Amino acid sequence: MTGPGIPGRRRVAAVIIRDGCVLMVRERGTGPTGRHDGPEYWTLPGGGLEAGEEPEGAVRREVAEEVGLHALDVRFAYEAPYPSGWTACYRVDVAPGEPRLGVDEDLVCDCPRMVGLIWVPLSRGTGADLGGGDVVGSAGEDGDAVVMVPTLLMAARV
Questions:
Q1: Torsion of CA 25, 118, 64, 158, to 10 degrees
Q2: Tens of pLDDT, residues 76-135
Q3: pTM of the full structure
Q4: Residue 82 in contact with residue 10, Cβ under 8 Å?
Q5: Which one, 26, 40, 93, 129, has least CB within 10 Å?
Q6: What are the start-end ranges of the E strands in the chain?
Q7: Residues 6+ apart with CB under 8 A from 158
């Protein structure tokens, strides 16, 4: 069986670009209590594949669940390591509309994992865009926010 942080887990993520910005989701990690009250970080919308699910279908499902948008076109862009497993990232064109923060229906706790959305300007392409200093992947100004944006600049070129 696979799960978070277990090698071999298949994940997908969506690179959604609009008006020169990429859409990111702010999530809370699991803290010492087992609840989602741990460090916060920014990541691309995405998640694990369900049994028998094709990657393109998983991307469409994750986009709808996490940011409430309808995926029109899904194209493979690149693969990147994430803490929860290797992730196939897809360039996703979405229907018009504003994103809205989704809810994880499958969590066993009553605490939210997804806590925010932001459009990050691609022209800057650094952790500073997210309050994280000069390097993507640095600690945030609040001391516990972490940016997980693997090869964000590569995503901007797809």
A1: -90
A2: 999 988 777 789 999 999 999 999 988 766 655 666 577 889 898 887 544 444 443 333
A3: 0.69
A4: no
A5: 93
A6: 11-15, 17-18, 21-28, 40-43, 46-48, 71-82, 85-94, 114-121, 145-147
A7: 15, 75, 77, 78, 91
Nearest to 44 by CA among 152, 156, 157, 158: 152
- Distances 6 to 11, 39, 138, 148 between C-alpha atoms, Å: 11, 20, 23, 18
- Helix ranges (DSSP H) in 55-147: 55-67
Dist CA 114 CA 53 (whole Å): 23
Terminus-to-terminus CA distance in the chain, angstroms? 33
Q: 79 in helix, strand or coil?
A: strand
Which has the closest alpha carbon to 88: 6, 4, 18, 9? 9
Q: Is 26 helix (H, G, I), strand (E, B) or coil?
A: strand
